Amino acid sequence: MNFSELFKLSSQLCKFSPDGKYLASCVQYRLVVRDVETLQILQLYTCLDQIQHVEWSADSRFILCAMYKRGLVQVWSLEQPEWHCKIDEGSAGLVASCWSPDGRHILNTTEFHLLLLVGISFSRDGRYLALAERRDCKDYVSVFVCSDWQLLRHFDTDTQDLAGIEWAPNGCVLAAWDTCLEYKILLYSLDGRLLSAYCAYEWSLGIKSVAWSPSSQFLAVGSYDGKVRVLNHVTWKVITEFGHPATIGDPKIVVYKEAEKSPRRALGRPACPPPRAAESRYEIASVPVSLQTVKPAADRANPRIGVGALAFSPDNYFLATRNDNVPNAVWIWDIKKLRLFVVLEQLSPVRAFQWDPQQPRLALCTGGGKVYVWSPAGCVSVQVPGEGDFQVLSLCWHVNGDSLALLSKDHFCLCFLETEAGVRTAFGQPDNCV
């Protein structure tokens, strides 16, 4: 791996353009657009206030900056730097702003409608928009055709308090799930027909996370009981349940354990100079392995229990999960064989993980000075170089999968990865740590 120098950043606002040519980052009220290849500044825009949200248009020709505190959205053009647009919501306020798939329309959510609007979801092909809202204590979904914004369907949902909606990648099915107090997930067709309703249990906290597989064949539902239930697209029945036990006893499961390497020092004397960060590497642990768990506070809202993060690999082979009361571990499941494949246990709680868009390669961070990458060929722990204490709080992949943006509180850098030619051929046969 190679790393760029550190660049200033605010609020972790850093995004690659969809075409992969540009990198946008925000420093307070300034928007900086760089060339991905050279990291040279191409454009520098000045907004009217501190930027709180930034988003590229689908064709990478425009970029919007939202300033929620001021109720403002400013739009900039890369092709015509002198052109710009300002949208002022005034006294209505602003809580969200996003592009439509055609990159020529912007959808703003104002404070006036905050209690009514539950969520929006565009189909992957950009043809349809699903809008969930609440009227007179009842939940509804409206489906619009994005070409002319005409209403296609409007129907009520059998939910107590709708929490979220998401289209399947093929745009044929819309998933809607209820508040965490009521375990219910509903599957609707494009014309509003209820295809299926699923409830795993009652009288306990329910759904915490939802993820579609890229092929639309599977819907993974993460729950507060620490299990992931995978529904199939034919019958919409559960084909398997993935639990997250605190002890791994199956010898077929590879457990990569991050181990700290203490710096060498003379007896009774501290290392001089003191190390900036402790070195670490992955070791393959011998089963049974007991994972670190935390006991959630029973008297607080949003307890740290249950499956809080789900993500399928781009080839549908793997599902990565994090159980919030086992915060240091990432679980990687083999979807073809419907079994646990690998567990990565870190020294610190996992803050974020994300799949390479092009191949089954998972990057993760724990809020420290390292970035971790796993593939079926093995896994690696790499210290981010540079002066100061650079803590990786979040990360995002370039569309080509050849680089990562690593984000800290006040800075970011790019991590360049070598192409792993053996990833696909090594599938299912993990080697020792790399």
UniProtKB/TrEMBL annotation:
GO CC annotation terms, alphabetical: microtubule organizing center; MWP complex
Domain of life: Eukaryota
SUPFAM superfamilies the record matches: YVTN repeat-like/Quinoprotein amine dehydrogenase (SSF50969)
Transmembrane spans: none
Protein known as: WD repeat-containing protein WRAP73
Source species of the chain: Hipposideros armiger
Organism ancestry: Eukaryota, Metazoa, Chordata, Craniata, Vertebrata
This protein's encoding gene: WRAP73
